[in-house]
Design a protein that fits this description.
40% of the residues lie in helices and 33% in strands. The chain has three helices and seven strands. Helix 1 packs antiparallel against helix 2 and helix 2 (34-85) runs parallel beside helix 3. By secondary structure, it is α+β, with helices and mostly antiparallel strands. The chain has a seven-stranded antiparallel beta sheet, with helices on one face. It has helices spanning 2-31, 34-85, 207-219; strands spanning 106-130, 133-158, 162-167, 171-175, 179-185, 188-193, 200-203.
Length: 236
C-alpha cells in the first residue's frame, strides 16, 4: 500500500512538472526568453527523473510478483505430487536424523531469527560536563526497544509430530500440537508456541510451502509417510 502511494505521488509530481515544462516552453517560444528556455529544460529533466523513478518501482514490483508466483507454483506442485501418490517423498537431511517411526517429511536450510528487547534511557534536559563526565540536568525515562536478529543458521525439518531446527548455536524442537499461531510470508514463517514467550521466526526458501505444510500436519494425523485414506493436503 505504501509503495503504491509512493508511485502515485511520483507520477503526480511528474505530471505537474510536465505541465510546467509545457507552459515554460510556450513562454520561451513566444517571448524568445533564454531564462524561460533554461527553466523549461530544468523542469523537463525533473519530470524525466520522477517518471523514471516511478517506472523503476513498477519493475521492482513486477520482479517481486514473479518471484511470489514462482514460489506459489512450487508449493502447489509439491502438494499435488504428495496428493497424487498418497505419501511424502524421501527428504535427504544433513543434520537431522530421519527415523522410521517418525520420518522427516521435508527439510531445508534455514535461518532462525529471534526477537530481542531492552530498555533504553531517554534524557530530557540539559547535558553538561563536569570533570570530563557527561551529566544530565533534568528528567529521564525508560523506553523499550525491540529488534530482530539472526540467532543461528542450520537445517529445518518437519515430521508428522514436530518441527525441528538444528543450528550451529541454537536448536529447537516444537510439537505441532503446541503451535498456537502461524504467520506465513513468502520467505519466512513465524511460529508461536504454547509455553514459549517469544515466537520462532524461520527464514526459508519457500515460506508458503512450509506454512501450508505445517497447517496441514497440525490437522492431519499422518503415520509414517502415508497420507490417511481419503485425505489430501490443501493450500488455503
Amino acid at each position: 500500500m505504501l509503495r503504491a502511494m509512493q508511485k502515485l505521488l511520483l507520477r503526480a509530481l511528474a505530471v505537474i512538472f510536465g505541465l510546467s515544462t509545457f507552459v515554460q516552453l510556450i513562454m520561451a517560444i513566444t517571448e524568445k526568453s533564454p531564462a524561460a528556455t533554461v527553466s523549461a529544460l530544468v523542469t523537463a529533466a525533473i519530470t524525466f527523473g520522477l517518471w523514471r523513478l516511478s517506472s523503476r518501482a513498477d519493475r521492482a514490483d513486477s520482479k517481486a510478483g514473479d518471484k511470489n508466483n514462482q514460489l506459489a507454483d512450487e508449493a502447489a506442485a509439491y502438494f499435488d505430487h504428495v496428493n497424487s501418490v498418497g505419501k511424502f517423498p524421501e527428504s535427504p537431511t544433513d543434520r537431522i536424523i530421519s527415523r522410521q517411526d517418525c520420518p522427516v517429511l521435508a527439510a531445508c536450510n534455514a535461518k532462525l531469527l529471534e526477537v530481542t528487547s531492552d530498555q533504553a534511557r531517554q534524557y530530557l534536559g540539559t547535558r553538561v560536563k563536569l570533570a570530563g563526565l557527561p551529566i544530565y540536568l533534568g528528567q529521564s525515562s525508560s523506553a523499550a526497544r525491540t529488534a530482530v536478529r539472526e540467532a543461528a543458521q542450520g537445517e529445518l525439518a518437519i515430521t508428522p509430530k514436530s518441527l525441528i531446527f538444528d543450528g550451529q548455536h541454537r536448536s529447537a524442537d516444537v510439537d505441532l500440537d503446541k503451535i498456537t499461531a502461524l504467520d506465513i510470508a513468502f520467505d519466512a514463517i513465524t511460529v508461536s508456541v504454547r509455553g514459549r514467550q517469544k515466537p520462532l521466526i524461520f527464514i526459508v526458501p519457500n515460506g508458503l510451502l512450509w506454512g501450508m505444510l505445517i497447517r496441514n500436519l497440525i490437522q492431519i494425523p499422518v503415520h509414517g509417510r502415508q497420507l490417511p485414506p481419503g485425505t489430501q493436503l490443501t493450500i488455503r
